[in-house]
Amino acid sequence: MSRSIFAEPQFNDEAAAYAFVEARLWAKGRVCPHCGVVDGSGPLRGKSDRIGLYKCYACRKPFTVKIGTIFEASHIQMRDWLTAIHLICSSKKGVSANQLHRTLGITLKSAWFMGHRIREAMRSGQLGPLGGDGTPVEADETFFGRKEGEEVRARYAHKNAVLTLVERGGEARSFHVEGVKKDDLAPIVRANIAREAHLMTDEANQYTQLGKEFAAHGKVDHSREEYAYWDRKSNVVISVNAAEGYFSIFKRGMIGIYQHCSEKHLHRYLAEYDFRYSNRIKLGIDDVARADRALKGVSGKRLTYRTTGQ
Measuring CA to CA, which of 5, 104, 195, 253 is 20 to 30 A from 131? Predict the structure, then answer.
């Protein structure tokens, strides 16, 4: 009989939680965050010393694995952090701050801030271009929420624009953009899609000239109710269904789980949905491995309550 993942020691014991995090963040040796010396420190085990505290023999300063990570200056138990990371990583559409507040027994303000810190850990750095081996890459846009200070206007001028690039069978990258004109989209498409890729879009005019910069450009005309077709020349299905599938998950989560998102925080929510999509079961990454990847991204992502712009 299988048992719950939350029966594991790292979710129930604080010392085990610290050991779990240290094993992943210090896999190549315990690094002093003050002077950079590796494995030149020892644990402090006095009665008044907290769990996970070490002292560097080089600079004589104390430190824990929290320093320089999203955990720094947090008074929330490490085991609760690991629980929250696993919950967010294993929930396809996300977990609300209210849910974390009730589940972990922390304040709503702490739960909200914790969620944003975890999303920050999910944000990727500079990555190689998509479709480098000629793989199809779909590009599509959608609109969500309302721009700060904007009144409702015709069509989508008052809404936040999102551009998403999806490599078929691979990852997704989403961007909060000013608009959907060519000047808004072209720099992002050029920077994130390899020239060898087969670009796939809908009939939007902003991609007509841009598409010529790639190995091939396939288009579907939604105005004629065309959504997918087999291209004999390239021997591939032309569609943007993967990108639209991503938007379906994103919008269901944002509307059904989070319900509201201000413009200044949209980029972090996009990072969360990109992370789960790019580390999904279909790619051989289960809930445990996904949470592990998120945990390894906590370093160098210090975020304070003030810098979140709340």
Answer: 253
